[in-house]
Amino acid sequence: MELLVVIAIIGVLVGLLLPAVQAAREAMRRASCQNNLHQIGLALQNYHSAYRHFPPGAIEVRPQFPNGKQHAWSAFVLPFLEQASLAEQIDFGLPFDAPENEEAASTVLPGFLCPTTPRSEGTIQGRGASDYGGIYGQRITGRNDPPNGMMLHDRALAFRDVLDGSSHTVIVSEDAAFPDGQWINGRNLFDQAFSINQAPAFENDMRSFHVGGVMVLKVDGSVSFLTEQLDLEILAALCTRAGHDNANL
């Protein structure tokens, strides 16, 4: 009888401790994700220091360019993420999915992967995955035409272009486990159209597996956690560089 009581008590204690252990693990994963974005932010700042502008979001994106190279911002910043040797393996004069770029593209870079995102491998269709996408603009309050984000096609922006303020403008956000999430692929950017974590699976949008929100990187290099309850107009304002809407933030 006493043994059964002890076993019951142990069972209760385990039941009480398990949520706390899971919460601690998620806190560590969230901190790791935050650090990933912090390092990406430093890489973007150093890229800007070297070239006086940020990298373009993508170059020669298809189908506008039928045989476009379609390289992503996340490939351009590799030398500033201590991945200069990997960058040297990429032939930027050829498309991202050219056979000559296959080996480099298959490299899994932990700094582009949120540890909270469930996955069986670090690749998508054989190419290194990325859970972080560049912000092309927003479709919450308008058509995003012309695009008003920080990561554009075939155009490199600088601090001087951020009229809403660098601390009020998101440049990169989590977009976890999306189909085009490959660090070399120029489709590694999106315009925000839904509430956080509410987009349908086929849409690239702010999305994470963290409870209650998503990690974002702002132009000034700071990293924030945006909650799912964030007002849509404020979210839209954060995704634009020159919407003259920072007074609402």
Automatic annotation (TrEMBL):
PANTHER family: GENERAL SECRETION PATHWAY PROTEIN G (PTHR30093), TYPE II SECRETION SYSTEM PROTEIN H (PTHR30093:SF2). Residues 22-187 form the DUF1559 domain. It comes from the Bacteria. This is DUF1559 domain-containing protein. It comes from Rhodopirellula halodulae. Transmembrane segments: none annotated.
